[in-house]
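Run log // design_07
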């Protein structure tokens, strides 16, 4: 069973998948930072200083006035953090768009590589069946 597991892990597909997951996790951190640190402040500026990440509604419990989302959660109150959800949706849309662009680019590179392959050389053509029959006929006439 250990040998089967080793063979399974050593296959290219499993290793490619592992690398993809690791790179994807690192990429997610980058996109999260992009959304949190760059896009949300710009959207907030356009919408009059709104910060999505701190938007919430208190469902139950007491929260001091003007408390941020982190402070509201620390009080133990039940909060509906719709701002975090909006940030997650923006993250998803950006990640999906970038993955779309990557797949499109990889497909374009694959297509270009397939087109650049030289066509297989044709085998030298010999005489056709008709040519051979005509040659036999001509030799029989002599």
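design_07 sequence
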């Amino acid at each position: 069973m250990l040998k089967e597991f080793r063979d399974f892990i050593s296959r290219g597909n499993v290793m490619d998948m592992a690398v993809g997951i690791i790179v994807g996790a690192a990429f997610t951190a980058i996109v999260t930072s992009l959304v949190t640190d760059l896009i949300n402040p710009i959207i907030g500026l356009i919408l009059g200083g709104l910060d999505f990440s701190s938007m919430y509604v208190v469902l139950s419990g007491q929260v001091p006035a003007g408390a941020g989302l982190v402070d509201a959660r620390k009080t133990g109150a039940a909060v509906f953090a719709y701002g975090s959800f909006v940030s997650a949706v923006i993250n998803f849309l950006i990640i999906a768009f970038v993955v779309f662009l990557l797949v499109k680019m990889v497909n374009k590179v694959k297509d270009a590589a397939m087109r650049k392959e030289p066509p297989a050389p044709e085998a030298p053509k010999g005489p056709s069946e008709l040519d051979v029959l005509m040659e036999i006929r001509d030799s029989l006439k002599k």
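The domain at 2-116 is CATH 1.10.1200.120 (Non-ribosomal Peptide Synthetase Peptidyl Carrier Protein; Chain A).
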